[in-house]
Amino acid sequence: MGKINTSSQNNITIMHDGVGISITKSEGVLRILGKKYSLMIIGVLGNNNSMSFSDIKKSVGCPRSNLLSVRLKEMSNAGIIMRNVIESQPVSVRYSLTESGKELRENLIPLFKWIECNCYPKS
Which of 34, 38, 46, 78 could be joined to 105 by an S-S link, Cβ 3.0–4.6 Å? Predict the structure, then answer.
């Protein structure tokens, strides 16, 4: 099992199977993932090959287009999603997960399963 090592103020690591994994290096991505709609965007994009802005907006229930635009840009800059502009009349934009984004999503699924099993009252 993992344990947290806080011996260095500049680098916090989790020891897992004898290997140190830096939390500090992950801070930028974790900041993005912790923002509203980020995990939902990753989820719905993983359920589909690609989606338009309006389809993502409807699927995640984001009421403000500008907020969704910011999230998509942050995740695109982090290499989690890909923005594909299709030259047509009118111009179309499709979003999809990058290979890295697909891998991230796969690694998030056990966390979501754990939350579902442990954080809600059993009926």
Answer: 46
